[in-house]
């Protein structure tokens, strides 16, 4: 167990406050149409255990499985073999919603399906999630 802990990298966490009601943000993260608008094309359905795919462009179609749905607060899915994406929403009142996206499952010695070190991919994706979560914010605030 201790060995595994030393071998993991911290999850990527990106938190932003949106000027949008939690129900609108929930619709943007819990439907295929919503996810496609700010993230990537997909065939997501909000059903625990449901398999779906994300079209990651140059990185191909990625297999995913829904792990958790707690409307309108939390959604989590497995992305590929090792990653978990969790999005947590908190109603801040006055039609404001705090959104935290967590990308976990990084291993220090891990390699992606494209033979890239996870430590390198994690840094790139960490920067990428900043823009993606901002895009979600623009979508729900429109």
Would you write up a description of this structure?
It is a single chain. By secondary structure, the protein is α+β, with helices and mostly antiparallel strands. The protein is 31% helix and 34% strand. It has a six-stranded antiparallel sheet, with helices on one face. The model has no long low-confidence stretch (mean pLDDT 94).
Question: What secondary-structure arrangement, pairings included, does this model have?
Answer:
Elements: H1 2-6, E1 12-18, H2 22-29, H3 32-38, E2 51-55, E3 61-70, E4 74-79, E5 83-93, E6 96-104, H4 118-141
Antiparallel strand pairs: 1-6, 2-3, 3-4, 4-5, 5-6
Summarize the structure.
The chain is of the alpha+beta class. The chain contains four helices and six strands.
Sum up the structure in keywords.
single chain, 142 residues, alpha+beta, Alpha-D-Glucose-1,6-Bisphosphate, Chain A, domain 4, six-stranded antiparallel sheet, 31% helix, globular
């Amino acid at each position: 167990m201790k060995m595994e802990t030393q071998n993991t990298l911290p999850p990527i966490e990106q938190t932003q406050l949106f000027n949008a009601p939690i129900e609108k943000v929930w619709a943007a993260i819990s439907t295929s149409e919503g996810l496609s608008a700010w993230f990537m094309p997909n065939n997501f359905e909000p059903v625990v255990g449901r398999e779906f795919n994300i079209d990651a462009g140059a990185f191909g179609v990625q297999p995913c499985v829904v792990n958790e749905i707690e409307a309108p607060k939390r959604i989590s899915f497995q992305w590929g073999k090792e990653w978990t994406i969790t999005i947590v929403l908190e109603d801040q009142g006055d039609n404001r919603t705090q959104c935290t996206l967590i990308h976990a499952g990084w291993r220090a010695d891990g390699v992606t399906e494209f033979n890239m070190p996870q430590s390198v991919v994690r840094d790139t994706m960490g920067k990428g999630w900043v823009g993606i979560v901002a895009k979600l914010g623009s979508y729900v605030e429109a």
